[in-house]
Amino acid sequence: MRVLLALLLSFCTSLAAAQQLRPWGGGETPPLALQDLEGRPHALEDYRGKVVLINFWATWCEPCRAEMPSINRLRTTLAGQPFAVLAVNLAESEPRIRRFMDQVPLDFPVLLDRDSAVAKAWRTRVLPASFLVGPDGRIRYSVIGEYDWTQDGARKAIFSLLPPGGAPSQPRAELRTAIR
Asked: What is the pLDDT of residues 110-126, one digit of tens each?
């Protein structure tokens, strides 16, 4: 059954890969409260005042694996800004996730959705699925499928959500170049 689900999700993801970041019209922001790999709790409300990229993923999902380096570059480039990334892993074992992270180091928390309850609440049916949450805690944008988080559309959306005083400390043109 798990193999069939994996194949179905991979197939659907390949169909959705051409989608772009788009404004959210899906209603209220569901709750998100999970522990990371070190057992530390993370709740979305703890990130109020920041733009948060929430990415639902799994190590068996090839588009998820391919997307992670661009998320990592984006996060590194926006260090010091009111921006955070939360990678929500769907129901995989900690050893498996850690093996992946040995190959692809990540500079952001990986949260454990052990029973996929949070993914269900967020209506995540295809992986990867990402959401940009504004400083007010509301989902503002979403994208289904692999997405290059270093492209102009992503940067424009994030810059538009940064709170006053949270704009990039370097000129935007310089920051855009640094993200690439």
From this structure: 999 999 999 999 999 99
